[in-house]
Amino acid sequence: MDQDELLAARFEEHRGQLRAVAYRMLGSLGEAEDAVQEAWFRLHRADVSEVRNLAAWLTTVVGRVCLDLLRSRTSRREDPLEWESHLPDPVISGPDGVDPEQQALLADSVGLALLVVLDRLPPAERLAFVLHDMFAVPFEDIAEIVDKSPAATRQLASRARRKVQGAGTPDADLARQAEVVDAFLAAARGGDFEALVALLDPDVVLRVDTGVSAIIRRGAAEVASQAMLFREAAAVSRRVLVNGLPGMAAVPDGGAVQSVMGLTVRDGRIVEMYIIADPERLAGLSRL
Predict the structure, then answer these.
(1) pLDDT tens figures, 187-238
(2) pLDDT at 252
(3) Roughly what angle, to the nearest 10 degrees, separates helices 139-146 and 150-164?
(4) What pairs with residue 248 in β-bridges?
(5) Confidence check: pLDDT of 277 > 70
(6) Total Cβ atoms within 10 A of residue 146
(7) Which residue, among 92, 95, 132, 94, has the nearest Cα to 112 in the 3D structure?
């Protein structure tokens, strides 16, 4: 095996974790892949003969790439509603369990609710929190990426931690969550408004991201009314795992995925709902 092949093999050993870092940083599966690919290009151009910990070196590189992407993304967003309504890419699995290739992406219970909160953080805060709290990268290494002192970097992570604390924490019982999802689906199919309201927390929040427009609804009655408008989608929906938690996907027989719904169930009621109905982002899920 020559040096290029050896380097490529060593990189592949770390690809899963690098994708996991990038996904938590960006909330986009496509951009995460791009960030990992950019890390490979930089590795191939660099002299790493003196690098003792290649995994740490690559994680730092991916962190830099993601920080640049986040800052660019932030500068382009001028409409506050875009911040509020944009949803991360979902990781979809069958109802019986997560695909082994998705395990690294979803370790540490990275549900849609957590990614939504991470998406609201300033780029440097998100980087400090993700790298330190999720991947145990020392603050000294993160400080070099954000061009701040280790103490200031520690404060970035602390601020992010306070904002993220408790975000989207669901019930621990996945079977109970699945029962709530099934009951919601049955009520939506049957147009049972009262049953829908009973399954929703009084302060439930619904966000719908179609790619070109956004819908945000708050409160059980408002969300139940919105659900009544999606009876056709409910008729072709089935339960799946969305980022490791019970959710649902609308998939006509033999057709492409029309929408994906992620849910957060707490104390037996739905407290958050996220619907992604952007055809371009769902194209890769066309054969669920």
Answers:
(1) 999 999 999 999 999 999 999 988 877 788 999 999 999 988 888 888 889 9
(2) 84
(3) 100
(4) 239, 261
(5) yes
(6) 19
(7) 92
